[in-house]
Amino acid sequence: MSDSGVDSVIGPVVGPVSTSVPPPLISTVDLSKEFVVRERGRKSIVTAVRDVSLEIAAGETLGVVGESGSGKSTLGRCILGLETPSSGTVAFDGTIMTGLGHRELRGHQRDMQIIFQDPYSSLNPRRTALQQVMEPLEVLTDHTDMRARALEALDRVGISETQAERLPRSFSGGQRQRIAIARAIVVRPRFIVCDEPVSALDMSIQAQVTELLQELQRDLGLTYLFISHDLSVVREIATRTAVMYRGQIVELGPTPALFAEPKHPYTQRLLDAVLVPEPAIARERLAHFGASVRSPLEIPADSRLVEVLPGHWVREG
């Protein structure tokens, strides 16, 4: 384990490495991101992500939860290269991505895609569903029959060929998110960051889209980083779950174990506050959650993740 984080979400390496254990698809080491904030003529530094070290195995879903402002989305954007980390490294399938030039990064973009939260703003209102899905093919591939490939992706997510020529305003919110998903999978990536992909949808549609994401993962061998404030969705879809607080991972472990027996005080309070049957109540509680726990939960910046159970890590302090 590194001084500031965790060697591996699978566990520390002891003795010879078995050749039967594949390397992680995604790994970060001491990943940090700082932003300069200017207010009333004064400049300050805000640390959004602090020394995050983790690994994501091929084919799994790592859920990331925490209150608003905990660093969840910034972590995902740093992994994809949409934000430049202030320090630390990101590796994809063994290749260090941090520090690569634009041209070198471009070669990996088709392997790493993102699904954004809001299907209303993530689509171009002036382009048809088919044009939206063809765009990544035009930019990232030299595929010879892009129309057929795009129609195939749309059909896979439940948008028919007769609907493909419509503009986004002709679709419901759930259908728009399906188009966004088709756009993410059309280049046949290996890794997708799902950044709150169902939070803007009605409950019945959330379940359908979540089921679709799980089906695509099984069929296409996808790996997900699934960011969400909806703990019930994370409990359903995630193989493992990481809990973030003020830019740090405070607990990480197998999802069933973490939800059944949370070890860190922040995780315990988070689950008690928002894991309720009514989603609207959960969202309201989560919106006010940070103010009630920040004062009593001062975690030293140099604290370390400790393995308390096999594969279950908790931050000291």
TrEMBL record:
Keywords: ATP-binding, Nucleotide-binding, Transport. The keyword Nucleotide-binding applies. Coiled coil: none annotated. Pfam families: ABC_tran, oligo_HPY. InterPro entries: AAA+_ATPase (IPR003593), ABC_transp_ATP-bind (IPR050319), ABC_transporter-like_ATP-bd (IPR003439), ABC_transporter-like_CS (IPR017871), Oligopep_ABC_C (IPR013563), P-loop_NTPase (IPR027417). The keyword Cytoplasm does not apply. Residues 26-271 form the ABC transporter domain. One of its GO terms (biological process) is transmembrane transport. Belongs to the ABC transporter superfamily. This is ABC transporter ATP-binding protein. It comes from Microbacterium mitrae. The lineage of its organism: Bacteria, Bacillati, Actinomycetota, Actinomycetes, Micrococcales.
